[in-house]
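Appendix B, Record 12. Input sequence as logged:
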Amino acid sequence: MEAVELRYVTDIREWWPVIKPGIERVLKRQEYDAFPEDVYLALRNGTAQLFVALVFNRYDGFVICRREDRVDGSYLFLWMAYTPTSGVADIVFPKLREIAKSGGMKKIQFATSRKGWERLGADFGFKRAMTIYEAEV
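Logged structural output:
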């Protein structure tokens, strides 16, 4: 697949009607305790960034990420990603590495409750760094 662009979006309102169905799908599949409007707020206030995947200038998914500054350096944290087309991730992940490098970040991280991402993540060079357990209070 050629001609894939990962475009940084500054006008969230323009893209919101396009990305909202994918966000709803991700939230449902991941069982997040969040609403699409929470994602919108994070994008609008700048705590998260939106990149849209364009294949031959046509929308084909998105990545929402944020920079996390930690004691051991800065990370690009992939909050959520969506594409309806197989093969797009193969092109998008190397572009995310370029974004992280150019931003001075040392690692890319993501978290998921879906077991299939352990295999897919390994295809892109990801390895399990920790396991998080939680309990309701």
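Helices lie at 12-30, 36-44, 88-102, 116-123.
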